[in-house]
Amino acid sequence: MLALLAPSWADELDLEARLAAVTNEQLVTLSRTNAWTQLGHYHDRFLGQRKSQVQDPRFFLALQGQTQPQAELEATWQALQASLTSALDEEADLRCRFPARAHWLATALDIPLPARPCSAFDAWYEEIDPGRLTLVFPSAYLNNAASMFGHTLLRIDAANTQQRPDLVAFAVNYAAQVDSQDGGMAYAIKGMLGRYPGYFSLMPYYEKVNEYNQLESRDMWELPLDISAAGVEQVMRHLWELNEMRFTYWFFDQNCSYQLLAVLSVAQENLDLTRGFQIKALPVDTLRALDQAGLLIEEAGFRPSFATRLHNMAQQMTADEVELARVLAFDQPHPRDFLLPEGVNQAAIYELAAEWISFRFQHQGLAREQAAPQMHRLLVARAQVRGRSGLTTPATPEIAPHQGHGTARWGVGLGWQADQAYLSLVARPAYHTRYDAVEGYLANAEINLFELELRFFEDEQRLEPWRLNLVEVGNYLPSSPIFSMAAWRVQTGLERTDPEARTQDSWRGFAIGGYGRAWGEGQDWMTYGFVTGRTEIGPQAGHAPEGEDWALGAGINLGFVWAPVRPVRLGLDAHWQQFVAGHTGAFWSTEATVQWNFAQQQALRLQGEWDEREESRWQVGLTWLHYF
């Protein structure tokens, strides 16, 4: 009996000796390590002060733990000692309450950490059965302010993928807790001002696939992460610690993508994935951060949206075949009474009609009582057609989102206006214009935010603000035999007009909204036409530089973009506007652009502008652009 008790007694003496050997200097050193910084979500503020981004007091063991990493580590050390030397219940034991902290601190101090049952955590972990982590990127969705730049979530792939394939795996999502009464504009404003709490949540992956891939018709990229089994375990322990913990949600920086990077940073001692995202954390930029850290595996899954699948099917069929499928999906004749002509791909027609019915049911309000019977009849008709339809699934794009150009851009240029030469400096934090290389981006969309241009005119001998493009968003989705799509465009900003006039006399603010149609797939060409409304304020508002300081009108905006060869994109954008209130009158303006995207992060842009209000004005400039 004494022989049996001796090892336990010796282990207990060894544990006591190790606990007693820990010094205050060790704790101070550990409180300054990157690993503790990531576990506590601490970030630099002013004059070397640090503060955790977690806003929930339950996350901290020390009274001043949110702002004092050392105090929080010392409190964690005390809790670990109590867990190892006393019989505590689960709610009080550090190993159950903060398992990631307990594991890291015991490892750092070379103290054995005996396992103990933690019923809630153990059941949660067993149900998820984590094996590998995959970052998921649903593409941009311009009809929702919250999703204009895309989104990221984390999928936890099960260790046993045969019993739990990816669709029934679990997904980790970070999102704002939004007031149900807030619309798109209210959400955007509150999100930018940090007025929403943010929380992590866990849900079945198929729910997010249904939300993004099916309901919102967003393509999804699935990017496996190169994280070790030990790293996956530590990430899971930390996710348990963050359950129901409140953060502050910020639309541009501390958003869904940023906080997932913060969680993944606990996987390795040296990871600090959120470094460099103090101002903005766009989803595609966070993918690049993971790639630069060596955490993205080359293989990437692509899950095309419902709309992409329908478009792809229609593109492989003739116009007559698509029309026959449309009749079956909308007029819903019985297939036995609607005989298909000889020579058509009957299997493809029935397959497209069935998918079209499903899309109408999920997206366009078709009642189940109308959808289900015709769906059944179509599937029966398809089963009676021998052979394959020959329709193939959408191909995975050659360039993944993070492999395109950088979202920020700056440039220098030389130009002429009113017979005066000028140097220009341009910069924008985000995101993509219709003349930038489209690889990795939505081909029929542009988002251009906070673009500033400064000009130095030789005669003036001073550097002055010339143009501030606050917001420019264009959705140029084309109509097709499958969908009738509306295109739209909004833009607002400030601009100077005359280098020879005094600064206070030569500016105007403007806001433009356009609604219309677009044609073309965007990669090689597209054209568009809008009916527009326009508001201007300032000394140069409206028709001429004298009179009212505001103007309100309507007009037409026409344009096209063409890529004769892939690196070159050129286009024309023309406006005609009739101001009917304020400083009334009409004006024309035209902008011609040629951009050579000669490298992934480099481009040359030649742009000429002409407008005619009371008098004609023109300018032309050549700018070198660098993306990062």
Automatic annotation (TrEMBL):
Lineage: Bacteria, Pseudomonadati, Pseudomonadota, Gammaproteobacteria, Oceanospirillales
Protein origin, superkingdom: Bacteria
Family annotation (Pfam families): DUF7840, DUF7843, Lnb_N
InterPro entries: DUF7840, DUF7843, Lnb_N
Name of the protein described by the UniProt record: DUF4105 domain-containing protein
Coiled-coil zones: none
Start and end residues of each DUF7843 domain: 29-106
Sequence ranges assigned to domain DUF7840 in this UniProt record: 400-627
Lnb N-terminal periplasmic domain residues: 120-292
